[in-house]
Amino acid sequence: MTLHPTRRPDLLRWTLTVLVALVGALALSACQSSPHRVANPVALQDLNGNGPEAEAAAYVLRPGDSLDVRFFYNPELNEAVMIRPDGRISLQLVGEQQAAGLSPGELEQRLREAYSRDLKTPEVSVIVTNVPSYQVYVDGEVGAPGTVPIAGGMTVLQSVARAGGFGDSARRDEVVLIRRVPGEEPQVAVLNLDGAINGSDLSQDVRLQPYDVVYVPRTAIGNVNQFMAQYFRNNLPVPFSFGYSF
Question: Which of 32, 45, 84, 146 has a Cα at 20 to 30 A from 239?
């Protein structure tokens, strides 16, 4: 095909116009898919307290914990019980009581109130007798996906380091944290760990709790709810899926 010499400037001008339009469209698309535009369903302060430097929170009772329930003035009511999968325990006089999700002190207060209908001075203490070795699950673009034993004060970045570190294709600016809440639907937050790594936003490096799931994606997560449904259905190991519902 032979182009007329007088038409070449028009063709060049048209080509440049198309290229500029394509570059603009790609830039707009990148902005719209930016991980910073993904809304966090859970505020970081709700997960983090006062940040990674905050003191460790009180121990939270969970299914499988073994408890000694002891009465100072009524030792005949002393019992050794285990928190059932539904989060409850069964006790003399007061029957079933919710235990999972509470600290031992909060459970003590609830039991004092429950036993006050039958006892004049219900002085009760709750002792956790066998705290299990809790774990978190780290998945996605890390060196060694799998379970990681959780130590006191462990953060998301520390768990990734224990799982072999970030892979070459990891999106460190869009890491998903999934947290199980007894009796409720899971909480999910999208974390920009680049901010924690470079020191610009240390609140992104959230302190972990037992059974948390940390997922490091390879590509952008556009729809958090869709990702959650697919991930729980296809990827999450059975022991960690217990208690999660959608």
Answer: 45
Strand, coil or helix: 1: coil
Long-range CB contacts (within 8 A, 24+) of 94-99? 94/118, 98/183, 99/61, 99/65, 99/67
> Are 29 and 169 spatial neighbours (Cβ–Cβ below 8 Å)?
no
Q: Contact at 8 Å (CB) between 89 and 103?
A: no
* 3-class state of residue 28 by DSSP: helix
- Residue that wins the pLDDT comparison between 45 and 105: 105
Q: What was the pLDDT predicted at 214?
A: 93
Q: How far apart are CA 102 and CA 17, in angstroms?
A: 64
Token pair for residue 195? 């901010």
The answer to whether the beta carbons of residues 101 and 183 sit under 8 Å apart is yes
Window from 34-38, 124-128, 168-172, 196-200 with minimum mean pLDDT: 34-38
| pLDDT exceeds 90 at position 121 | no
Q: What is the pTM of this model?
A: 0.54
In angstroms, the CA 223 to CA 33 distance is 10
Both ends of the chain: CA-CA distance in Å? 61
Structure tokens at 110: 């609830």
Nearest-Å Rg of the Cα atoms of the chain is: 26
CA distances from 106 to 24, 60, 125, 170, 221 (A): 57, 10, 10, 41, 38
Sheet with 135-140, strands from edge to edge, namely 146-149, 135-140, 213-216, 175-179, 187-191
| Residue position matching structure tokens 């799998």 | 146
**Phi, psi dihedral angles at 141 (to 5 degrees):** -85, 70
Cβ atoms within 10 Å, residue 111 = 21
